[in-house]
Amino acid sequence: MSKKLVYGFASGKADGNTDMKDLLGGKGANLAEMTSMGIPVPPGFTISTRACNLYFELGHKLPSGLDAEVGKAMRVLERVRGKKFGDNKDPLLVSVRSGAKFSMPGMMDTILNLGLNDKAVEGLATSSGDRRFAFDSYRRFIQMYGDVVLEISKHRFEELLEAMKKKRGVAIDTDLTAADLEKLVAQYKALVKKASGKPFPQDPEKQLWGSIMAVFRSWDNERARIYRQQYGIADSLGTAVNVQCMVFGNLGEGCATGVAFTRNPATGENLLYGEYLMNAQGEDVVAGIRTPGPISKAQSVGDGSDSLEAAMPECYKQLLDIRRRLERCYRDMQDIEFTIEKGVLYMLQTRTGKRTGLAATRIAFDLYDERRIRRNEVVDRIEPDMLTQLLAPIFDPKDKERAKKAGRRFGKGLPAGPGAASGVVAFSAEKAAEFAATKTSAILVRRETSPEDLAGMVASQGILTSRGGMTSHAAVVARGMGKPCIVGAEEIVINEKAGWMKSGGRTIKQGDMISIDGTSGEVFVGDLHPHPSEIQQVLVEKSMKPAKAPVYQMFARLMKWADRIRTLTVRTNADTPNDSSLARAFGAEGIGLCRTEHMFFGDARIGAVREMILANDLKTRKKALAKLLPMQRRDFEGIFKAMDGLPVNIRLLDPPLHEFLPNREDQFKVLAKEMGVKVATLKQKAEQLSEVNPMLGHRGCRLGITYPEIYEMQARAIMEAAVRAQKKGIRVFPEIMIPLIGTVQEYVILRDRVREVAVAVLAKAGVKVKYQIGTMMEIPRACLTAADVAAEAEFFSFGTNDLTQMTYGYSRDDIGKFLPEYLDRRILPVDPFESIDATGVGQLVEMGVKGGRSARPNLKVGVCGEHGGDPASVAFFHATGLNYVSCSPYRVPVARLAAAQAVLAEKGGTGSGTA
Amino acid sequence: MSKKLVYGFASGKADGNTDMKDLLGGKGANLAEMTSMGIPVPPGFTISTRACNLYFELGHKLPSGLDAEVGKAMRVLERVRGKKFGDNKDPLLVSVRSGAKFSMPGMMDTILNLGLNDKAVEGLATSSGDRRFAFDSYRRFIQMYGDVVLEISKHRFEELLEAMKKKRGVAIDTDLTAADLEKLVAQYKALVKKASGKPFPQDPEKQLWGSIMAVFRSWDNERARIYRQQYGIADSLGTAVNVQCMVFGNLGEGCATGVAFTRNPATGENLLYGEYLMNAQGEDVVAGIRTPGPISKAQSVGDGSDSLEAAMPECYKQLLDIRRRLERCYRDMQDIEFTIEKGVLYMLQTRTGKRTGLAATRIAFDLYDERRIRRNEVVDRIEPDMLTQLLAPIFDPKDKERAKKAGRRFGKGLPAGPGAASGVVAFSAEKAAEFAATKTSAILVRRETSPEDLAGMVASQGILTSRGGMTSHAAVVARGMGKPCIVGAEEIVINEKAGWMKSGGRTIKQGDMISIDGTSGEVFVGDLHPHPSEIQQVLVEKSMKPAKAPVYQMFARLMKWADRIRTLTVRTNADTPNDSSLARAFGAEGIGLCRTEHMFFGDARIGAVREMILANDLKTRKKALAKLLPMQRRDFEGIFKAMDGLPVNIRLLDPPLHEFLPNREDQFKVLAKEMGVKVATLKQKAEQLSEVNPMLGHRGCRLGITYPEIYEMQARAIMEAAVRAQKKGIRVFPEIMIPLIGTVQEYVILRDRVREVAVAVLAKAGVKVKYQIGTMMEIPRACLTAADVAAEAEFFSFGTNDLTQMTYGYSRDDIGKFLPEYLDRRILPVDPFESIDATGVGQLVEMGVKGGRSARPNLKVGVCGEHGGDPASVAFFHATGLNYVSCSPYRVPVARLAAAQAVLAEKGGTGSGTA
Fold it and tell me: What is the top EC class of this enzyme, as a single word (chains A, B) (predicted)?
């Protein structure tokens, strides 16, 4: 590796280029590239990430040689600009900016106007002929330097500024006079001395090195570390430092500054899209004090006269040209910053722009249609998770912004189910149902949900809980239903009984209107008016024709391309005929997990279920089961119909029985009356069923062993439904799945019993039905003994939720107590319930697949945990050789796309990404 | 394999011998052996286990050729005895007995007098000259045949017998006359016809084959299957059938029958020990209707005139001679059955006799001293578990027998802690402490125990619970304390609040006296007066001199021999200086697990612990921890002292914090007052700490991460204690263990923190202390990533309790709901918390050892779960290459012996077992 630490860019020539992001960071590499392209960029240089890493290796000391290289580079800038750094008459001023490979909040951002001091500010006043400008620049510099280098809270500077404005009776900064600003500078310097114990440094060299080291240090601050952890960015990358000659957008007339996207980042529309401010420095645009104007006339909501296009047509034309050249070079939408100093345009930054799912999709297809990128690149460029944005109802970002400004943001939790919903607060499932009965949209708000709340969740537009994680009951069920959901909003205190919730001094009562954004996790007071997505309207509501739905058409095109590439089959987790149809509309190629217990919660059924559970003898239990049989059979028949021609994997009863029991006094009373037994007897039985660790308790196949009649009933319902459906011409492929197998003995006992029932049903009906019996792999021991299990089982389906719980020893209901800290401190790179832990849990999956196929080479293997819809996990499952993944209906498109990208990644990528 | 199915023995010649137990069963092989030895055995033959297995393979059909072989063998018997089978005048009568390789309750036992029918009985009456004998024999035959072949409950026959006795006004069977018995025979036959629908079979051939097939079938009956499962006997062995000429001990004068052991099975004393009855059939001895006499004069409690030695001196001398010959042949104590027909002695059975732990030990040493067996055989012959019998207080078996007969047996549970205890019932820890304060022995009776009950457990003589399994809190703690304990006595209904328990219609109130036998699991009403073992008195109470304690001396000799053989180190799980000293007395070579949380429950401490947990800020928490520091330090110093020169492995806090919280209203009130906060605030905090699945929740190193100050305090207490102890000349080797590691990151963070504290403490003290930091391997993921963990950790200690919970997905608190059925149905061969599951859990242990040593070849690896004291598990750990096992103090001798046996087994055994 070259020992070079500093890379210059000036006068159309640069030492670096856009491919050197590792060394120069994103900003530096792109400044170098733009310079080489002949795009006007203020001259400057980049101190490489290598220098940053050496700084840390040396224990916060500057590497030798850096001093000389920076000095040399500064001399170049002086030569190019014809000014001298530290000169008191016409000083060369520079900006210092961080620039890591990936843009990162929390990193030190920018120090402007570096080089000013008490003397140089007078020189600047003279040379610019604008004393106000000079002291405003000095004031800004002291504040930025004080904040990021000396770690004096910027609020303390702002307080002084506010006091001055108040004293002068003015509303905005620009109304302060040169004299005001001069006084403010004196106050700022006094603050610096008081807070840091030293006077504000007057030596520009000292200022420069102080800033450079502050950038280095900011690489290691907490916020940046957390961000890297969240986005899987390696700590070893380090940051570069960009030092650039200042250009000023605030030097009076003919000056401006702006930010723009080369295409609309919200919609993807192929138009330059951005904002600018006349006579301002860059930070003023985002500060929101003055309202910026639109870049183009087209973008203007007025007559266009407020646009840059109207105000500075030449610069606008130049920007359009630069836009074209940047997109040709980068082959993607760019996010740019620019400054116009006295009519001269300078580009300060270009980078690939962030965008919504909709924009990402449209831009990718537009670039394809413009022949800029290839088909596989289109498929590879759209983050699968972004598709959920296309599918989910949404709030208008402007509405959210307004609500925030109005102080209507109530709290924040984990974004568990994407999409937006507004409705009145219901603190119980019953209340939610009441609202639904009166056609009132409701948001179910609970500390946490249980299967008892299912009806309430169905009746609600969205769910909000103060406890639980991304795979808590509320989160899983809500995603399954495609409902917006926020969980673990710990700052919100909920009192369900009293009917209120509190956060930050505000109280919301039952019946009050709130809005939840399940994509961001934010909760708002009042109605933010969500609207359904276009795809939803075409595929689900069928209220829109495909031809009239351009977003749907893009979606369909993307899915078609992805389907051609992928080799993994994508199934769905669905428990009802409705869900099955929905998932099929979204492209599911069968059901990977039909949870029979969800069918047990309907009003008509729960009574029979409870009778079955609380029965004291086999006869009573069989009687109750006999009531359930026709209901389950009907469900299964509906599902077979919806999945005509596709496999349907049905899991026999899994959860501990006490989950079905009443938990309220009145429910006990009703049930006791129905069953003709005493309330005390029922309660005693319920108490007997309660467990210390239900997740590790009497559930799954353990129930099948101790209450064989339950599985018998279910097997009968499945096979009878299959016979009926087949007789109606439906092609059925039932797969009966036995859950929670830990020993092959359990499997064999239950398999034999199920098979016996199946054989009897088919013999009676006199027909043949192709069916398979297999097992869910969710207990570590099952994976460890997979060869034994596969010798008997016809298929494996990995239940990676439970497998993760047991492999890590984490209860997903309780992980909220330490997970946030574990993620913060990078003990876990990611929530293992969200994305599979390839190292540990994945090792058991691999052992399971390998062991299983050693005993049965053509073993069908899938996954039905929540991971089936997580793109990173889908890639892992593809690599592990699974036959299919299964996920909730709304995740099916995500999985299809992720499965295609897994193939592309395996082939070494497409040569292009979204970074 | 030979196709021979029948093996004869008669006239001093036999087809089989004692080594053919697989084929002939234990009984048959030994009858053949005795025959060849010239010992008088009634002639007979054995149908091999192969015939039995063929019978099942053929779907309950007799294998071809068996008929002919049996016929041929019967002809031999006819020839030898000079009688004909089915003859009406002087019929040959035979017995039919099952005989598997291992003796097994539940198997069909015996049919006597087979060959009798309505005509032959008359012949027998004539030939024997004893009509009463003939009809009594016929009556017995019908009853036995009816019971085991025709499956007519024997109670129905007994009812008829009782009715007859009542009618005749006699108390015992023998007072019934020939005429009475003749009538009874008629009634029996009527019963058979009524119950089976067919008359009692008159054809002796039919009787014979019915009996043979009944023996075959009994191999597969439920009780036999359960027994095999419990004792790990393969289903594929099958049973043999022994057909033997009848000899009669009930033919009047000169006739007798008896059972004996060649040595005393309770004490091991080298004397023929047994019982006999004049003029009786074998079943009468065990039936308990007539009181049998002692075999020898020495054994007699009277003047010896009631002994066989006095009554039939010739036969007695002959028995002594046979005893000598049998022991020389079998090299072990034998359990024999004999019958004397008109002065002629016949041996009916010999087998290795069951014995108590005491007897096993004494007999082994005596045989060694007699030069019958070698040293390694002594070590190999004593079942390690039996040692606990030598260590535990015991009830006199006669006292138990008497109590049972008096109907004082109250219930039965799992024998969780061996030993006997009597005391008054206390339904709460407080009540137990109250009793203890007044020096009243108490038995703590709870539905289940929690750490809150610890003081009550300490205060009690024994523990009885109605819930929980062999590794429930009560069981583990009780074994650790060496206290008798019965858990999971489900038939007993306990109402702690009301202060009573019920079982089988009887009610016991608080303060009533009960006795519990933790070795058998039996609960008795009243005081059965337990007494401490000799070893206990020598080693623990120090109230007996070793020289005066012969049992202790044997124990010490055995341990010395075992220690020479074993390679595994044996440590102990001990939490207090007392336990440490105790364990050391029992031979512990260090502490493998010191659970620091148990120290938190003392009266003086729990307050500070609760303050620590419920603190709302770091300051309050640190204040509470500062109170705990000196207490923990004192504990550790005491432990180091007790373990001078030996390693002490201390586990940092492990259980979820809410385990320490108050759970009663009054406790909350006291604490709230102490802490100066509201009860409601405390309760809310407690509620926040509660978890759905605490076993998978916020515990272990997860607490260490989120509350770093707890581990810091503990590390400080350990190292400060080590410094103090070392300054006093004690050699300390602390090992600090971080529990529940799932990722190496957790370990590194906590290791660094602990090391920092240790370095600071040592620097301040200016001394060097050898210490190690390592981790507990109890999360599957830790085993899967063992190489990563071992790169950082200095030792591994497998926590196989938790590892078993997570690998199987079994909560040990809840497993009681299905474990009994899982064991019954042989889904699990054994409770995996009792004996390690080598296939699954063991695979993770092996991966952990292999992975760990791949990164750190000299990695010290031990096990500290309950399995460390289980002999089968110790053998597994030896084979897996562990350095040490650790177990509760009272299991240390067991582990030492088991570790020695593991070495012997590895070397291919000693050529002798206890089977």
Answer: transferase
